[in-house]
Write a sequence for this structure.
């Protein structure tokens, strides 16, 4: 959708990738002014999964229908595993 005539169609593929990269980095690393002095204001995410695809939007929220339980390795690795497994399942079922 970002490459249609109303958005970024005038950019070549390299420029388009650069715009998307800048947007994603800004969205992840930007800290709103109100958060700068609050708890965890500068805590970047431990894992990010960005999907660039055409067609219907894809939600991975069901990866966490069953709560993630912390083990000896904390929450990050089990959460990452659940997210990637859910994505793989969706890709297999829907041929994405």
């Amino acid at each position: 959708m970002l490459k249609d005539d109303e958005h970024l169609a005038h950019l070549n593929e390299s420029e388009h990738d650069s715009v998307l990269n800048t947007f994603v980095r800004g969205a992840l690393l930007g800290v709103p002014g109100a958060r700068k002095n609050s708890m965890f204001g500068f805590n970047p995410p431990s894992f990010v999964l960005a999907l660039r695809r055409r067609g219907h939007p894809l939600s991975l929220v069901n990866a966490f229908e069953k709560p993630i339980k912390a083990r000896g390795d904390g929450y990050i690795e089990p959460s990452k595993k659940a997210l990637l497994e859910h994505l793989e399942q969706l890709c297999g079922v829907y041929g994405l």
About this structure: The helical segments are 13-29, 76-94. The chain has a mean pLDDT of 83. Residues 31 and 37 are 10 Å apart (CA to CA). The chain is about 40% helix and 0% strand.
